[in-house]
Amino acid sequence: MKMEPTRREFIKKTAVAGSVAFALPTIMPSSVFGANDRINAAVLGVNGRGKSHIKSFMVQDNVQITHLCDPDMPLLKKRQAEFKETYKKDVLLEQDVRKIIDNKDIDVISIAMPNHWHALATIWACQAGKDVYVEKPGSHNIWEGRKMVEAAHKYDRIVQHGVQLRSSPAINKAIDLMRNGYLGKVYMSRGLVFRWRPSIGDQGFSPVPEGLDYDLWTGPAGKRAFTKNLVHYNWHWAWDYGNGDVGNQGIHETDLCMWGLDVGLPTKITSMGGKFLWDDAKEVPEVLTSIYNYPEEGKIIQFEVRPWCTNTEDGATVGNIFYGEKGILVVDGYDKFKTYMGQDRTPGESGDDGMASGTGMDRGDGGTDGHFKNFIEAVRKRDRSVQNGPVETAHLASGLAHLGNIAYRLDRVLTFNPSSETFVNDPEADKMLKRNYRKGFEVPEIV
User: Fold this and answer.
1) What whole-number distance in Å separates Cα of residue 238 and Cα of residue 240?
2) Domain map of the chain by residue range?
3) In this protein, which residues make up the domain named Gfo/Idh/MocA-like oxidoreductase N-terminal (predicted)?
């Protein structure tokens, strides 16, 4: 497939956005790892996706998890026991991410912490000479996403964003088809996040559970009185810590929308939605429809989040649909696609990692295991150009979600300047590009 030029073009195009321009990544100095040298890894955040990170690190050649890190010690001890049972090996525990960052025996980290921690932990790790796999969304706001890009380049680190569909052979085939004109002019992409999201109720305030370092859990965000509405997982639905489902599941789809259309950040954004079902503690909208317009490119992205009973769209509930002059391409999930050509919807090209690879791996060879494999390859080679999910995707895919959320919260159409990464004559909106950070947990300027 002819995907390498496309990946390089993507990185070149998106790296120059904002106030700092970066050259196209080149092969870096020779690796500090020999062919048989072990890479020591730590997993930060072990409640949800962190469990997949543990599994995916442990199937890589000559990679060993030496530390697990989480502010919740009872949870850490549970994972430690599971690790011992599964892998017949011991693993060390640490509550404080700063001690992991300072540990010179750790080579790489993966970040599955809440969203508000992603950028700061990534930047700290880059400054300490560690390479990073960071879950989606890469950032909690647009400003800190740009700081991640700057840090990765300044400190010559490999930062892989957890959008594993970029390592899917089938999805790469789909992108290749569109690049080579199979659909003709591709002018629109639609992102779908139709997930079963029930009420979380409202559990009120309560004492901090024994063994949880809530100050560390809060980190750079504003500190609230403790509530089980946040810890664990339901922080996704609070603005201080999460970004709603468009910034949760949706980052896979925002990334693919931009990748497939070959665009960066938009110039016009509008969003509308709300809470229509549950009188619960969620702050974010249950239903959200966002439009991202690219007038100069003649392209548009539609994005929709639904929380409950719904239809499928050509079989997809989580995925993407691309619209071209000759037909449409439907991506269902992470690793398969179909095309329908012409007005009569004649089935065309399709692809499926599960059937094509026969590996039985998580979501095919393009799943989490394959994405970690690509990360470790880039780490060993010291070569950002081989990455499937470079740091620029962490900034831009997250940034698209952030723009939609800002438009929803301000309840108006916004005009954005992708070059400066600021809004046009809109200081109220500009204030939402960045947050106030707690003392000791500030996301730093990269100079």
Assistant:
1) 6
2) 22-165
3) 39-162
Are 46 and 76 within 8 A, CB to CB?
yes
Give the CATH architecture of domain 22-165: 3-Layer(aba) Sandwich (3.40)
Q: Which amino acid, residue 370? A: G
Q: Which tokens in the block code for residue 224? A: 């609230």
Q: In what order do the strands lie in the sheet with 287-294?
A: 346-352, 336-341, 327-332, 318-324, 186-194, 299-306, 287-294, 268-274, 414-417, 422-423
Asked if pLDDT for residue 285 goes beyond 50, the answer is yes
**Which tokens is 439 given?**
């003392």
Output the pTM of the full model: 0.91
Closest to 395 in 3D by CA, of 45, 152, 37, 183 = 152
Rounded to whole angstroms, how far apart are CA atoms 114 and 137? 10
Mean pLDDT of 135-145: 98
How many residues appear in the chain?
447
